[in-house]
Structure formats: C-alpha cells, structure tokens
Amino acid sequence: MRADLLHLAAPVLGLAADVAFQVAYFRAKKALLRSLGAGFALGLAVTTALDLWTLSAHGGDPWILVANVLLFCALGYGYFHFVNLGETARRIRILQEIRKAGGSLSQEELLAAYNARAMVSIRLERLKSKNQVAQRQGRLYARPSFLLVAVRIMALFRRLLGLKNENRGLS
C-alpha cells in the first residue's frame, strides 16, 4: 500500500480495530464502559503504530501523525456516543418499550416504568457499588475512576467544539 494511502487509512483502520475489539470485549465481559475504553485504547494504538511505521519506512510530514491521532479521537468520540445513544437514551428506550409491548403503551404505564426518582436511585447505587462515587455526611463525591476520566474528556471535547456543557438544574 502506498504511504499516502496508509496515512489516510490509519484513523479508519484504528476505528475498525476499536469497534471490533469493543464488541468482542463486551460479549466476553459484559462491561460496556470498560469495553469502550479498551477498544478506544487499542484503536489509538493501531492508528499511532500505522502512522509511525509509515513515517519511519517512507518518511513524510510528522504532523500527519498528530492530525491522524486527532481524527481517530474524533471518530472514537463519535462511536462512543453512537453506542451510548442506543444504550442509555430514554427516548430510544421508551420506543423500545412500546415496541416490546406490541406497539402501544399508555402514558401511565410508561411513567410507572420510568419513575425519575427510582432511576436516579438505581444509578446512584450502581455508582456507589463500583466505587465511582462516595457518600459522606449526606453529600456525594466523585471518586477517581475511568468514568470520571471519560466525563472530563467529553467535557473537553464539548468545549473544543464550542458546545455548552448543560446544567441540568442541580446548581
């Protein structure tokens, strides 16, 4: 393969490795967030390795490596949100519930299934059980975790893209 084509293909091949590994990891371990992180790390390594190999074997502008790493990060970010959309978005979940119920549900049935207080309680328990938050004196504190790193990376990407970080009324 020509060096210029390999440079063009590196982020896409990195994304392909990311997706393939993430799917295999998730099927084996059933750990969505870890599988996404592991897939991203592998895809980044593939992108970087392909570009470093191409640069060392064929020369070229080293800035292409920086551009391709940034491009892979953008592709990986998009893939993360694609997976997250299908996994956690309430609108999609509600449509799935309606479909599973044979095509119709009453609003009362949906509201009973999606009680906001119960949903937050379940998520808080999950965060506590995974040591991602700690509770002291009635207050919740974020603990260092992969999830917290992911939140910070997403906030950084939102700032870089000029998007507002939404305040959900908890101030």
> How much is the radius of gyration in Å?
20 Å
Strand content: under 5%
Question: Could you say which structural class the secondary elements and strand pairing correspond to?
Answer: mainly alpha
Q: List the total number of helices.
A: 7
Unreliable residue runs: none
The average pLDDT value, as a whole number, equals: 85
Q: How many domains would you count in the coordinates?
A: 2
- Distance between the amino and carboxyl termini: 55 Å
For the largest beta-sheet, the strand count, sense and barrel status come to: 2 strands, antiparallel
Strand line-up in the sheet with most strands: 1-2
For this structure, the quaternary state is single chain
Shape: elongated
User: H/E series, N to C?
Assistant: HHHHHHEEH
Helix content: over 70%
Write down how many β-strands occur, each being a DSSP E stretch of 2 or more residues.
2
